[in-house]
Amino acid sequence: MHEYSIVQALFDRIQDAARERGAVAVRRVKLRIGEIAGVDVDLLQTAYDLFRVRTICEGAWLDVERVSARWTCPDGHGDIARGHALVCPACARPARLAAGDEIVLEQLDLEVP
Ligand SMILES: [Zn+2]
């Protein structure tokens, strides 16, 4: 499943970051996930709960912030409202996705002795 590979990659990054900073534990993992990133947050949570056992994240809680999709004009005419055709009303250029497809490790709260 897609969510399992996301969590696997996430754990690799968390472990690197924790090692770099000499952390003994992770208290909280904060992710930002776009609404059209193709991630099922419930599945992601399930995968996280499976992975974290006996890792540095065993006691870390997963905090997910969802980000709405946002479309914008590539020529700087600003955001394009949802529900419209995805072209700029000023210049008719196709909209560019400005937010909503991201999967970002936003914050790690580490316990550093
Ligand atoms: Zn435009």
Q: Kindly state the mean pLDDT as a whole number?
A: 94
Q: Class of the domain at 2-68 and 100-111 in CATH? A: Alpha Beta
Enter the CATH topology name of the domain at 2-68 and 100-111: hypothetical protein PF0899 fold
Taken as a percent bin, the fraction of beta residues is 25-35%
Shape: elongated
Strand order of the largest sheet: 2-1-6
Got a strand count?
6
> What is the end-to-end distance?
36 Å
**Global Rg:** 18 Å
| Estimated structural class | alpha+beta
Short description, anyone?
This protein has 113 residues and is an alpha+beta fold. It is built from two helices and six strands.
Can you offer a commentary on this structure?
The protein is α+β, with helices and mostly antiparallel strands and 113 residues long. Helix content is 27%, strand content 31%. It has a 3-stranded mixed sheet with strand order 2-1-6, with helices on one face. The chain has a 3-stranded antiparallel sheet with strand order 4-3-5, with no helix packed on it. The model has no long low-confidence stretch (mean pLDDT 94). Bound molecules: zinc ion. The site of zinc ion has 7 residues, from loops.
Outline the secondary-structure elements.
Blueprint (H helix, E strand, L loop, with lengths): L1 H19 L4 E10 L6 H11 L9 E7 L2 E3 L6 E2 L15 E4 L3 E9 L2
Parallel strand pairs: 1-2
Antiparallel strand pairs: 1-6, 3-4, 3-5
Bound molecules: zinc ion.
Features:
single chain; 113 residues; alpha+beta; hypothetical protein PF0899 fold; three-stranded mixed β-sheet; three-stranded antiparallel β-sheet; 27% helix; binds zinc ion
